[in-house]
UniProtKB/TrEMBL annotation:
The lineage of its organism: Bacteria, Pseudomonadati, Pseudomonadota, Betaproteobacteria, Burkholderiales. This is DnrO protein. Residues 1-21 form the signal peptide. The keyword Signal applies. Keywords: Signal. It comes from Alicycliphilus denitrificans (strain DSM 14773 / CIP 107495 / K601).
Amino acid sequence: MNTFTALLLAAALASPLAATAATAHDHGGGAETHQLQLNAGRKWGTDAPLRKAMTAIHGSVTQILPAAHAGKATQADYDAFVNAINQQVAYMVENCKLPPEADAQLHIIVADLMAGAEAAQGKQGENKRAAGVVQVAKASNAYGRYFDHSGWKAVKLPH
């Protein structure tokens, strides 16, 4: 992402609309409802920084998801999760160099990742933390459906 794109993304994520993107703990619907599209029927290309960041996000979400879903994740668990997501998104924004069309699609996923992290942080109430983790999982799964990341495996959602 170029500097201008990163600034636009930061501004968009700071808006109240980004905060309303978090979903309830219902496992239905998900990140893909934001107009994600394939590239003429094919997945969008990726680059090494994007794959690295998304692999780390995948690892973070699969680690906390069982405890969050069971209501056993601690504040420290959520804090570590949110920190990891924020670090990887920052790395992605700083280092990812996708063509503009792919970049625009990635912004949809990044917005969902950030909204999920915000909910997991407790900014939408303590009872929305687990839903935030689920939203990050769904955004990760949407990434796998729309972006070409060799060996990507969907996050298994409870239920």
